[in-house]
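Entry for guanosine-5'-diphosphate complex. Fields follow.
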Amino acid sequence: SSVGDVAKVLCVPAGDVVKRLVEAGMMVPAGAPADSAVLEALGVAFGKKLVAASDEQPLAEKNSRPQPKGDNLVERPPIVTVMGHVDHGKTTLLDHIRHTRVADREAGGITQHIGASVVSYNAKRIVFLDTPGHAAFTSMRARGAQVTDIAILVVAADDGVMPQTIEALNHAKAAGVPIIVALNKIDKAGANPDKIRQQLSDQGLVPEEWGGDTIVVEISAKQGIGIDNLLEMILILAEMLELRADPAVEPEGVVVEAELDKGKGPVATVIVRQGTLHRGDIVLTDTTTGRIRAMIDASGNYVDEAGPSMPVELLGLSDVPQPGERFHRVGSEREARGHIADIEELRRRREQENRVKRMTLEELYSQMQQGEVPQLNVVLKCDVQGTAEAIRASLEKLATDEVGISIVHVGVGRISESDVMLAAASNAIIIGFDVRPDANAKKISDSQGVQIRLYRVIYDIIDDVRAALEGMLAPTL
Ligand code: GDP
């Protein structure tokens, strides 16, 4: 909705609203989109609580989940990633769930860690990826693989929405992955759940109980309060998402973890996306192959088969693959070797394709020339929050019928590896204002072909983007 729409909601003339915004130091015309900063300012000026409507949920990739193949689609368990700010309780939550809900534990207690856990609740299963946080999530996505169906965003009720909360939220949004908020630490004296609900609303996550469509569950990971409710909400959301797969089609899936084990050789934890993987199958990943010598499930049992959504550790690969590599079954070891011969070539070609495909400001105009309606996705990093919001608003105003502009993420501080991975996964460019990339981010942006543009003057950003839209951008040196 625009600033003008907000005026209607407030039952005041649009001119008044614009004037109040000017008084608040914001030059925003009535036609401009009312972002969270505008809503906040107007909320203060008119003494109302304003939240963005839920249809404002920003971009989500339509292709985030592959269309399942096959005629025998059956329900499959949801695959869940836990995200959130450091120390808000992600690990505690995962540990609690693992210790209380993992079915079928080995006598003696400790189950083997394979990188994912399978939890049973109400006779249904839920798969949790064991590595919390959005770094693994997004680096897998940058490789083109996405396994997460649902993201749990953990927010400590005594601390609230923090920079990494917003980062995680934007990573999940950019991937089109639905979010359930776990308001953690409600046992603590300083917990203020309603204050956090307001902060979440400001980020576009309006709780259901406030008329929005974000599921918010109050929990204490430490004391085990509300965990059943959280699991229940995951299952309800999973049902709404209609997660289906055919166990009978050719098996394929994604590598989520891999390492070289001294005794066992290369081991890889994979999640089967569709079909059923059997011991003895020959699989081919992006970079390696092998006959599956053994499969170990999340409870540490040797198993002969693994169906859709199931995580298993594979033994028998000839090399250690990277997380995010996809695999499928091939007919024979000879066929696999034939593929492997091509793998180096394939990898080189893929890297090159990635390079060409990546969006740059220069690329924008040529796409428009080709009659496409391009989308400029931007990861914006600034020195301070106020500037960030101002630049965001100005950039969003440049969108036209011919080109969409979407700000995938706004953050404060140095450009990090995580920003680059998000940009790579979202085909975005990075704009830095009065910030620089750290050494790692620089290296990865080079190898991933992600464009980073650094500025010290706001008008230069706007000028450059406008020039790019008009095909007048001077080439960078
Ligand atoms: P992570 O960095 O998000 O994985 O956070 P941790 O799970 O390591 O938790 C950080 C700290 O918060 C630890 O000291 C936990 O014991 C504590 N903590 C986590 N959940 C809760 C909770 O529900 N209540 C309280 N009081 N403390 C918690």
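NOTE: DSSP finds 14 helices and 21 strands in the chain.
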